[in-house]
User: Fold these one by one.
Assistant:
Number 1:
Amino acid sequence: MSRRRGLIALALAAFVWTLLLHAPAATLYGWFASKNSTVQLLGIEGSLSEGSLAGVTGNGSTILRDLHWQLQPWWLLLARASFHIESGAPIAIRGSVGISPFARHVSNAHISASLKSLLGSAGIAYLPIDGLIDGDIDSLTIQHGFPSAATAILQLRGLNWSLAKPPMQLGDFRADIRNDNDAIVANIQSTSGPIEAQGLAHLNADGSYDSDIRLKAKPDADPSAQNLLHSLGQPDAQGYYHARSHGQLAGATPQKAGAPPASH
């Protein structure tokens, strides 16, 4: 009798799972999507096993467009729904995305995007810079809507200062991204162009960010590039100007002084 019940339970589980795999993805999204989430999926077609959507929006801007997915079923053994995805411009990404009960994961991914689009998805599109980002993301973990861990190498090409007319070309840069305790740290350095740059940027667990980039115009730099650096204030003893910034990602709650870190 117990063996028969076990077979019945197994058959029922297989039946339910088959229904989920082939159920319309839009219906499943309507059932399980959080009503309080700032991220919305638009134009959903297909099923859980394979489908597409017209766009992903968050923080008042479009994050992804023309996204296609295909389920990687073996990850279900580890309680994670994992998909191979591909999306189109303005943020083109190709790789694996996983969904577990407490986090979202990106791995083995290649990204190509405009800097302005990425800044917009983070809620800081007002920064007057643009360029093209291309790179590889080994791993990225998102908890409570914000990155909590990341390992990646990104190339920023054709960085320009958009307040100038025409936009002022500042060169090409590289960012090596790693984890450091509860923060994500980007080691930034210039690779070509009129400005020498080096420094660090931090994204902290509470959604706050800060950066301090040392900048120096090369001897053959255009006078407009030198004037831009002069607007940052006085250089340090080594002749470097410091571009410092700090703030809070849109939607993040600042952590009060003396409060313990938020648990994940």
Number 2:
Amino acid sequence: MKSILLFITVLLVAGCSSSYNPSEKMLTYKKTMTTEQAIKILQKIIWDEGDTKGICGARGFWYDESSNMLVHEENVSMLAHKRGKELKNVHQTHDDIVVFEKQYYNYKFEFKEIALIGIYKDPLLLTTFPACNNPDLKDDYRVIDLFSSKLNNLKFIVPNAEFDKTMAALAILMPDKRVKNK
């Protein structure tokens, strides 16, 4: 019985993620891409106002959806907010409603702190990030997770048509990061 459980565990671990193998198209993009081009590509993917692609989840900070996120060579900077002083506290029978003031600050999601770049081919695997399951997208897409820690990551949607170019941009900006298919 123990050997069967061990076998099933090994299968689950091995089957859940695999190493990413760059395509020829991605490698071609990478050979000709400059750092400035990589920044522009990632900027367009992560935060292109008026488009359905972009950030679909974050952990470790709350970003302000009404402000821009800017991609730089070392980080993505954005206006974020944290819980400030309590403004309102309403006690109800089954639960309480507590409203807090938003304290805004400039947050930098540093590329050097990223431990892993995860690629989700099936966004339905991201049940805790429902915005990553975007029914408005007509084209197939993947979700890329810039994973710093269990408590700090940034997820964004990439249409399959732009996937190789985006991966080349990430390879330019974060050349030493591990990449895994999830």
Number 3:
Amino acid sequence: MKKNIRIEQIVNNVKSKLNIDLENYRNDDLVERFTSLIAIHSYFLSSFLYPLILSIFLLLVVFFVFHLSVGMVLFVGSIGTIWLLFFTLTSGLLIFTNRVKSDLSLVLDSVCKILSTFIQDVCEKVELKDFTSEKMLLLVEGFLFGVISPSIAEVVRKKIPFFKNFIADTFDKMLLSLFTLMKLSGNNQFLYFDDSVTATAERTKKISASYIGEIRKISENASTIINKSMKMIQSPIRIAFAVELVLGLILFFMIKLI
């Protein structure tokens, strides 16, 4: 809900401050483009299947190796089942987020191309006399989170039965990393230009070229963005996975001592 409100605010800001309606850039062709790139459904379930088989095997080994009383069988069975579910979930998410990197790479490359085309289109059609670097960044933010993000989320909803919000957030983290790099680049050099100069075709061309050039550089270093996005996504999962392993070892030694 908060995410939708935030997107709506960005889109409204772009419309009120820049007189550009981002709704015109949302279309089925964009959704179809991402649909052809995102193949999550082909490996989503298998990412959880292997950890599930492994955890069931480990649980069965415990039952067959240790001679447990009926009471202990019930205890270990109930606790082990809970552990099995959480282990499958955390390890499955780690496997899945590692495998999704290929999709992220393809989508990021496509996003950079689409964003470059969008900026070029805007620079050709919009009066740039009052376009400051802050307004240009607002435009980029609006396009990434008001057009690209909802399109990707729509594809995810169609292809994946579970964890839709989590997966959509994974792609949003990538978009956020892309936007952050653009902001940093803007603070350094390429977004500054003389706002007092009247808009001309030559000035428009230079502004467009500077943005597109920077986006190309970012696209060439896609691994940096993807790794940064994965780090944000995987950190809490890794912590949960480590806790699961510790709890599993504690349970194992408790059974061994009994």
